[in-house]
Design a protein that fits this description.
alpha+beta; five-stranded antiparallel β-sheet; two-stranded antiparallel sheet; elongated
């Protein structure tokens, strides 16, 4: 038997770590999960605290207990023929084939038909992008109504933004943090330790002093290796709900990604 009590969800990191959000809803989407955020369950006779988020009840040990409230999206109708749209997102009406406007609150992962994971399949992402742009590109709607041309431009731009965001690990990770309600503060790097900053300074100095392409390539290879390690660590942190750790690691990734760009610029100088 379960007894229901209320849990006030704070914005602290500790609260963020124990709750697993609805990973297909963008931040502005109003879903049942938002109404259920303040619900917790206590299993009689145990010391476990169970949190309700995104329609699933999660225990602090990470196990899923049950699905609670419905998170079904609101049904939408075609603007042209008023027939029900059966898919989310619906780019076209199945009945009259008219292009539809973008659906507010749909996450980039859902738009691009990708699994919600930091180590997503970028080949599948690229294939999906090309497929969508072939059908949504404004050039295909030059003979259509003004409304359809506007929808085409909006959908095509949204798909491009979703693709660019999810393509690179850094922007993908930052977007995932945004979906979790967290952000990296611009201009502040409090999570960067002095030892880490010293390492970055040494790498940048070595890059500035590099006299041959071989020296620059060596720095580039080391940087790629570090980015690969960070990718694995960030993926593990996100899977475990360790959002604070993921934030710190993404801050490090931001620095190394900057070094990677500097390596490319330096190599171009030798050409």
């Amino acid at each position: 038997m379960f007894h229901v009590s209320c849990l006030r969800v704070s914005s602290s990191l500790r609260a963020a770590r124990c709750l697993v959000p609805n990973r297909h809803a963008a931040p502005k989407a109003v879903t049942c999960s938002q109404r259920c955020m303040s619900t917790c369950l206590h299993r009689k006779g145990t010391g476990h605290r169970d949190a309700n988020f995104g329609g699933l009840v999660y225990r602090t040990d990470g196990s899923v207990l049950s699905r609670s409230c419905s998170t079904s999206p609101a049904k939408l109708n075609c603007w042209n023929c008023q027939q029900l749209l059966h898919r989310t997102p619906s780019f076209f009406c199945d009945s009259c084939k008219a292009i539809q406007p973008p659906e507010e609150g749909t996450s980039y992962f859902k738009i691009m038909d990708c699994d919600y994971t930091f180590t997503l399949d970028t080949q599948k992402l690229q294939t999906r992008y090309l497929q969508l742009q072939r059908t949504l590109h404004p050039d295909n709607f030059t003979q259509k109504s003004v409304k359809e041309q506007e929808y085409s431009e909006s959908q095509s731009a949204l798909v491009s933004k979703a693709y660019k965001t999810l393509l690179k690990p850094l922007t993908r990770g930052l977007y995932m943090l945004e979906l979790e309600g967290m952000h990296l503060k611009e201009g502040t790097d409090s999570v960067a330790e002095s030892h880490f900053l010293m390492q970055l300074m040494e790498i940048n100095e070595a890059l500035d002093e590099a006299q041959t392409p071989e020296q620059v390539n060596k720095i580039g290879q080391d940087t790629k290796g570090k980015l690969a390690d960070l990718t694995e660590q960030i993926d593990a942190a996100l899977h475990q709900g360790e959002l604070g750790t993921a934030t710190e690691l993404l801050t490090q990734m931001k620095y190394y990604a900057n070094i990677e760009e500097k390596v490319k610029e330096k190599l171009s100088d030798f050409m």
